Each structure stands twice: as C-alpha cells, then as structure tokens.
Amino acid sequence: MQTFFFKSIHYKYNIYIFVLINFIIIHMIDINFLTPFFKEFLNKREEKRNNDKALYMEIRDKLLTQDGSIRFIREHNFRDPFNWKSLSQLNKFENEMKKKSFFFFDLEIEKIKLNLNEHIAHFNELICINTFVVINDIQSVPEEWEYKNNVHYNKVVNEMNQEADKISEIYDKFIIRGKKKFRV
Questions:
Q1: Where are the beta strands (DSSP E) in the chain?
Q2: pLDDT at position 118 over 70
C-alpha cells in the first residue's frame, strides 16, 4: 500500500511521522505565540503570591501578633478579671475581616483565616454577653454567678477558655502554613 507521505514506509509509520512533524511545527509556533500569555500568567500568579505574602505579614506582624492578644488568651484563665484592652487585636482582626480586600488568593490560607475569624467572633460574643465591667477597663464574669448558679458560671468560663485555646491552635496553624508557603 502506497501513501502520500513516504512511499517506502508502511502506512502505520507514516502516521507516526506525520503526527511527530505536526507536533514539532505546532510546538514551535506555540512557543512564539503563547510566550506572552504564559509570561502574563506567571506575572499574575507572582502578583497574587506577593499580595498574599503581604497580607500574611500584616496579620502576623500588626493585627494579631504573637506577643499581643494571642499571648494573652493563651495564658489567661477567664475565671479571673482581665483588662479588655488585652483583647484589642482580636477586635481589630474581626473588623478588618469586613473589608472586601482582606482575603487570600491561596485557598488553603484563606480557609484557615476564615476559621480563625469564626472562632474570634464567637469568643468576642462570649466576652460581650458574659463579662461585665468591674473597675475602669477591667472586666470579669460576675462573681455572683459562681455562688448563685455555679453550673452556669463554670460552663461560661470553660467555654471562654476552650474558645481561647481553639483560637490559639488555629492561629498556630495559620502561622506555620504561612511560613511554609511564603518562606518568611
């Protein structure tokens, strides 16, 4: 059987050669044609990564520092009175979450940040509902609750302490994943 490609080679091999030559030609055309699009894709990808890195560093270094509110909730037992200003970074973070520009392009880090905010919001709600001003900026779960309704008092204090522990745990996960992803 003779073919239009090479008369001396069998038809099956002609197809292989034809496909190979077409692949080489298309590949050469694609390199020249697609290079600007590929560069644009890489630039956008790098820009997104840089934006994510900047947001991560803003959260880590300004909004929720390890030595600020995070350290306080790690170390404090909410059975005891506390200065509400010690929780100011948690409130700032929750307020920043309302901004449309406060998001990560990286879905894994964004999911951790959303989870962190969910627990911070719940913690702030617990503080608002269950603590009252004692003196100036000092707040506490009312001592009367301990005597009048010990079960409720312990439930509230335990829930606040557990939520604080959960925030610390998620924050640590956020910091570790961010360090690995952004190499900072």
A1: 82-83, 132-135, 138-140
A2: yes
